[in-house]
Amino acid sequence: MNDRADFYARIADRHLRPLWEVLDELVPPAPRPQSVAALWRYDDLRPAIMESGNIISAMEAVRRVLILENPGLPGSSLITSALYAGLQLILPGEIAPSHRHAQSALRFIVEGSGAYTAVDGERTTMAPGDFIITPSWTWHDHGNDGNGPVVWLDGLDIPIVALHDAQFAERYPEPVQPVSRAEGDCDARWASNMALFDHGHATKTSPMFSYPYARSRAALAKLAAARVCDPAHGVRMRYVNPVTGGWAMPTMGTFLQLLPAGFRGMPSRSTDGTVYCCIEGRGSVRIGEQPFEFGPRDIFVVPSWQPRSFAAATEVVLFGYSDRPVQEALGLLREQTLDESAA
Amino acid sequence: MNDRADFYARIADRHLRPLWEVLDELVPPAPRPQSVAALWRYDDLRPAIMESGNIISAMEAVRRVLILENPGLPGSSLITSALYAGLQLILPGEIAPSHRHAQSALRFIVEGSGAYTAVDGERTTMAPGDFIITPSWTWHDHGNDGNGPVVWLDGLDIPIVALHDAQFAERYPEPVQPVSRAEGDCDARWASNMALFDHGHATKTSPMFSYPYARSRAALAKLAAARVCDPAHGVRMRYVNPVTGGWAMPTMGTFLQLLPAGFRGMPSRSTDGTVYCCIEGRGSVRIGEQPFEFGPRDIFVVPSWQPRSFAAATEVVLFGYSDRPVQEALGLLREQTLDESAA
Amino acid sequence: MNDRADFYARIADRHLRPLWEVLDELVPPAPRPQSVAALWRYDDLRPAIMESGNIISAMEAVRRVLILENPGLPGSSLITSALYAGLQLILPGEIAPSHRHAQSALRFIVEGSGAYTAVDGERTTMAPGDFIITPSWTWHDHGNDGNGPVVWLDGLDIPIVALHDAQFAERYPEPVQPVSRAEGDCDARWASNMALFDHGHATKTSPMFSYPYARSRAALAKLAAARVCDPAHGVRMRYVNPVTGGWAMPTMGTFLQLLPAGFRGMPSRSTDGTVYCCIEGRGSVRIGEQPFEFGPRDIFVVPSWQPRSFAAATEVVLFGYSDRPVQEALGLLREQTLDESAA
Amino acid sequence: MNDRADFYARIADRHLRPLWEVLDELVPPAPRPQSVAALWRYDDLRPAIMESGNIISAMEAVRRVLILENPGLPGSSLITSALYAGLQLILPGEIAPSHRHAQSALRFIVEGSGAYTAVDGERTTMAPGDFIITPSWTWHDHGNDGNGPVVWLDGLDIPIVALHDAQFAERYPEPVQPVSRAEGDCDARWASNMALFDHGHATKTSPMFSYPYARSRAALAKLAAARVCDPAHGVRMRYVNPVTGGWAMPTMGTFLQLLPAGFRGMPSRSTDGTVYCCIEGRGSVRIGEQPFEFGPRDIFVVPSWQPRSFAAATEVVLFGYSDRPVQEALGLLREQTLDESAA
Q1: Nearest residue to A243 via CA among A287, A279, A199, A273
Q2: pLDDT for C307-317, tens place per residue?
């Protein structure tokens, strides 16, 4: 054993370790995400999701979700190092019982109508393309009063809260929390560019917890007609917290982007690994060297700092989320639009 | 002449003055507004406004406005020490030529439809109850493409800008600025609780420059149905800058308030003298010891720190504006809801 | 009487006024300050100040101050449209009794040592060049425990608070408020780039209420030695609120500026009319077309938007204050450094 | 194989996973930190540190640091899930070559004098107790111009930056970056509660990069004399970014705390796992059920949500750092002072 190895062995007992042996690993020259680019085709997902409805009830499962686990992060239950994604199924008549947790959750409705999410006493009915927030530490439950299965994409900040060892969770004493406000109350308070004179909302998350697709889609259409178009991202709009004008959630940034038919975007990259879900249309994305085709309800993930470029055969609308608000708050975000040649 | 008077006379030449002779005037124990409570009945205003249409053209006048001058501030052209108010008339086919100024202006549409305001290249069509902003230093002109006269309430921060000696103004080289964006562009960008991903809006004023009454009124109605009601102010909602969640304008706070039929409000007072314009319904307000009845299109002013209490015979909607954003920014605002007995 | 005059007369009774007759006055093309450039030589001021000591006691006067009234604003008690300035004298053994008011006050010590200001239970001893704050609505009294007269410059935001009709004031029941914290307590809490972990300071004004000249002067000297120098303003440093990093007071911006010996500054102008007090050295300032020479303790005022250029015969240090924080908060501030030729 | 296991196996190929099998692990009821309470006695550390000086040069190592690895996180190089800590040695005449990285670093000087850190062209000389920042992405190198070894505690946000896959690093072309500003320049700009009028500092990290112990210690002493004392934490002061009044660094909160001789603190807990380094005095800390004695230069770590209570035999001063700024920014922080009985 040479001197250094001997030294390392001796200090290991005292819980000491030589930095110089791991410096490059701890402080690498550029991001080395373990997550990889991946796409889940909804045609493949749907049979598994529907089968899960036979395997376990929503009540027993608490949340009947199939986690989309990144192939580069086996065993982690994560889609990127900082984000979780899953597809949740709720069948007619079912209830996913009420609980709350420090993790923030987003729901993006993929299939079906007639289910609801209740947040702190108010229910909102789900329709495809709707974006719904469950803010940190708010009681929430889901139910399906409709006639068919309803499926949505769940996005959570599980690894972020875990990194900081700040997890808390509890079950509500009843399966369903009481309804204390009429549906649409929140919309009346926040969706008209007005606010109650002395509203007192102080948490980091938008009090507007449901952003219906019809409204968002109309805004995208009007801007597309006005030829607003980013060369890499098309018409990209982020969901906004009306109390601050900032991101709707403190840990996850959420957005829609419309790619006009025939769009061929410039490549770009950013340090916020991003999950996308296609809502409408057919297109393709090149991530690093890998091409992926996508259509409605397909889900894909772009790891940090990998160049991505979009193309649209028909008009496409994508929903996306990433850890961008955290990276901005901490001064970590980098992004670039790249030359075609550099792609 | 006694010693003091002699001393005062001698130092006056050196532009010196004894504070102790004016201390109470400069630093009074409580606000002593020179402005007084006043109400302008629209039945009285309308003939004068219409006559002004014969007296001068919009083009010659630049802005054909009758200033509402507070009876306590004769010669000042002001409605409170900090605010200006006027009623502007534009007749079919007329144009109020384009200019810009450091003063911020608000327009609240009182009568008529079919006129427009253009702000920095985008037009918005006016309808009664709409709230429209002309941000500081933006080119703006007005025109009437409709069939009848259109009248609106102008609110400006003229005395605030004057106090700071920070006025600037200039005429546009043409009467009408070019239209560079389609009507509704601004609404698409800002009215759906979404925002362009990288919008870059950085001024202190809301980029949302037109808040249609239909949308605001619907929100009021829903909250009224939910029995949201402040004991002094009914359902009071302020207009919001979607970029910050704060006031729509840096110098003037604007709001709507709905008083349910039969409402009898508690008295309250605040240091921001406020101008109100009735949109719908009939009610009354007691300001200090003075009662006023009001109906649609009537305008009244409540001076700083005077107790006011509202009552509504029918359901009432009021628009209001004051210098509250400045008082909040400077730490000057005080307000109280008073006991009935104290009224 | 022509039609228009007749119309104007008729509507005047209804408290209406034609805007078009006063538009240029209300919305001028550029600032038209009524205040004028002026300089008060301390050699002229001092005899009057000392004589005031014979005319009235501090106790009777409450505040024995000679107001510096702008020659362009006779009868106003103001030095600019937005600011008040005065020189306060306190003689050995005297007390200026305790009171508080909505107006914020600054003290800049001009002559003498051994007096104190008490703010909310803590006293600070004054020395020439010290900058001391009396935040809005804090109890404060002054006393002189030394052997000679002490004179300071008082700056207040009287016209700003008056414009908004938000004045409040009250007398403390005793002439002197009790001392509840040792001298230097505030300094220990705020002057070391540290803060108590959970300090809870929430008002708009710096909790650091005394900025000793020795410390400020040393910083200026070090930066001057490092050849930091603005072409118009020399080494200009503003006093900072440690809680926010912003201005020390919400209504008045305060600063020191050092002009190296031989400095000849470029002309500049800004919309914040500014009061200067020379602390050290001899120099000159050209304001518009008017030249002024100044030496220690002389005070001068530069109205809004008038070009000013500084020159320094010896090394000069100036203290200054203006309404800049308000203009910044409201989006009104404009400033320019001008070409030599444009001066 | 039962149905569920079969289903799980079949979907695993499609990178799907049943949430209900891991729900409690992903969303636990309370923090389950893997890190454990631990203390490194300096008497044990010092021989290893000094031996490292023989094992490798600073130049070869780039940074000659012994990492303090949490016994509960073997192989991680981390002291808590969110933080890194190490002890760095630099010998007389040595240089640790210049580089920069996205990670923010703090240095807390433990032993020796005469070394320096250079940040973006300015050097600061180190003395025991000084707190020095290397902001994200700033060039920095270290050197020792003195006569003895110098040791400091390095704190970095390595796992935070890693979680977000946002690492970047590069070597400076020369071992030592050029010195462009005199020592103390930064102090002149920021340490006197003043700031250059137009400073333009916009990053998230304090421009004040060196906080000398002499100054911090004097503030602590004055507050201790004034009997300021938190029942759990004694006199606890955080380092402040003078530009914002907030934390000195965006990812790590840093503070000093003085425990008066004889202090027996109430237990408290918080979700930000914290690293402490004793500077002066002797005391003890109980973490969960485990008691630890500490003296000068000893380092210990308190995991998230574990109750800790301090006692001081003599007057003690501790330095500490945690991920609190991130937890505050994301709305994750929880903390409690506990009853004695609950400890």
Answers
A1: A199
A2: 999 999 999 99
Name the pairing type of β-strands A335-337 and A268-270.
antiparallel
CB of D91 within 8 A of CB of D53?
Answer: yes
DSSP structural state of residue A20: G
Global model pTM greater than 0.95: yes
C190 and D193 in contact by Cβ < 8 A?
yes
Distances (CA, A) of A169 to A66, A141, A164, D277: 20, 14, 15, 33
Distance (Å, whole) CA C53 – CA C68: 17
> What backbone phi and psi angles, to 5 degrees, belong to D139?
-60, 135
Judge: C163–B82 Cβ closer than 8 Å, yes or no.
Answer: yes
Q: Which of B85, B130, B106 is nearest to B247 (CA)?
A: B106
Q: Contact A275/A299 with Cβ under 8 angstroms? A: yes
What are chain A's partners, defined as 3 or more CB pairs within 8 angstroms? B, D
- As a whole number of angstroms, the distance between CA B157 and CA C88 comes to 34
Total Cβ atoms within 10 A of residue C57: 14
Start-to-end CA distance of chain B, whole Å, equals 47
Q: How far is CA B322 from CA A1, A166, B157, B220, in A?
A: 81, 44, 9, 20
- A-chain CB neighbours of D165 within 8 Å are 31-33, 35, 80-82, 271, 273, 303-305
| End-to-end Cα separation, chain C, in angstroms | 47
3-state secondary structure (DSSP) of residue D99 = strand
D→C contacts (Cβ < 8 Å), by residue, are 181-182, 184-185, 187-198, 208, 211, 215-216, 218-219, 222-223, 225-226, 228, 230, 233, 236-245, 255-256
Classify residue D35 by its DSSP letter. -
CA-to-CA dists, residue C30 to A77, B78, C306, angstroms: 64, 20, 11
Among D49, D144, D52, smallest CA distance to D93 is for D144
Its sign, for the CA torsion B191, B193, B198, B204, is: positive
Task: For residue B236, list chain A residues with Cβ-Cβ distance below 8 A.
Answer: 196-197
pLDDT in tens, B214-227: 999 999 999 999 99
Each of the 343 residues of chain A gets a pLDDT tens digit; together they read 589 999 999 999 999 999 999 999 999 999 999 999 999 999 999 999 999 999 999 999 999 999 999 999 999 999 999 999 999 999 999 999 999 999 999 999 999 999 999 999 999 999 999 999 999 999 999 999 999 999 999 999 999 999 999 999 999 999 999 999 999 999 999 999 999 999 999 999 999 999 999 999 999 999 999 999 999 999 999 999 999 999 999 999 999 999 999 999 999 999 999 999 999 999 999 999 999 999 999 999 999 999 999 999 999 999 999 999 999 999 999 999 998 654 4
* Positions of chain C with pLDDT lower than 70, given as ranges: 1, 340-343
Chain A, chain B: beta-carbon pairs less than 8 Å apart: 117
What is the spatial distance between Cα C104 and Cα B199, in angstroms, rounded to a whole number?
38
**What SS3 class is residue C149?**
coil
Q: Which of B151, B164, B172, B300 to mutate to test the interface with C (most CBs of C within 10 A)?
A: B164
Arithmetic mean of pLDDT, B320-331: 98
Contact exists between C and D (3 or more beta carbon pairs < 8 Å): yes
